[in-house]
Amino acid sequence: MPRSRSGKSLGISVKSSLRTLQILEYIDSRQRAVTIAELSASLAFPQSSTSTIVQSMINAGYLVVDHDSRGILPSSRVAALGNWVEPSVSRADVRSLMVAVGERTSQTILLGVPSDLCVRYIDVIPGRHAMRLDIPVGSRLPLMEAGMGRLLLSEMPDQTVEELWQQTKRRVKDEGAQGIRPSDVSNLWNANPFVSPLPEIMEELKQIRRTGFAISLGRISLGAGIVCVAMPRGPLEQPIGLGIGGLSELISRDAQQILSVVRDAASELGIALKMRSGTTRTSEREKTRRLRK
């Protein structure tokens, strides 16, 4: 009969599994060979455990060594994973959209997905403004409260939203901010973790579903704002959001223009967004709703 594993050893195993996936996500976002030192620094992992995980992935055939750059790359075995799920929008087109929007707005462009009770940013193109929003790949923000989180929640059934809200409420009550493990970039929320009333969240999700976009200003990160739109997806795909982030005052001032840029760039690439015509003007309610991002 196999031995039961202690809670401590199980926790270590889970952490290693998550780090393995984060390493693959990071390499995918860079689309080039990376070194162990870069992975350790960018993902804030100890270098010793990063080396151990990478070596295990090489031994298992999921990573290969690029001898020219002395870095590592995903193998064809990784490339074959998920091929049976046909994406609604190719990764190349999503990246092209991010680049186009970044070039036209000079703001930070983010790609976010739900991850447990957080939003995880799986790809980032840094902005070109002197005072730009700096969010590393892999950053985690509270799903229930972040602007990108509300956008992703709007793509889910109400019952799922309520279940996630209950889990968030319970974890924050029992463990505070660390109950959902957000990154340091969520500085306002981390200092004073809160969970908005469910009716308030549901009302905003209705608004997002009607317009096809979400705007959040200074809600989670000090002085930061974001405009988000949902990417098209099939029934087997998880929600994924495109975010344009920057200083709150710039996002508030330029929201209409940013949404127009996103719409035009998506149309040029043949990407059908859910944004409705005539909804690019920021509502007065959104302009005055600047409590926290």
TrEMBL record:
Keywords annotated in UniProt: DNA-binding, Transcription, Transcription regulation
GO terms for biological process, alphabetical: negative regulation of DNA-templated transcription
Recorded superkingdom: Bacteria
PROSITE patterns with a match to the protein in the record: ICLR_ED
Location of the IclR-ED domain: 77-275
InterPro entries xrefs: GAF-like_dom_sf, HTH_MetabolicPath_Reg, Tscrpt_reg_IclR_C, Tscrpt_reg_IclR_N, WH-like_DNA-bd_sf, WH_DNA-bd_sf
Coiled coil: none
GO molecular function: DNA binding; DNA-binding transcription factor activity
Name of the featured protein: Helix-turn-helix domain-containing protein
Taxonomic source organism: Bradyrhizobium pachyrhizi
Lineage: Bacteria, Pseudomonadati, Pseudomonadota, Alphaproteobacteria, Hyphomicrobiales
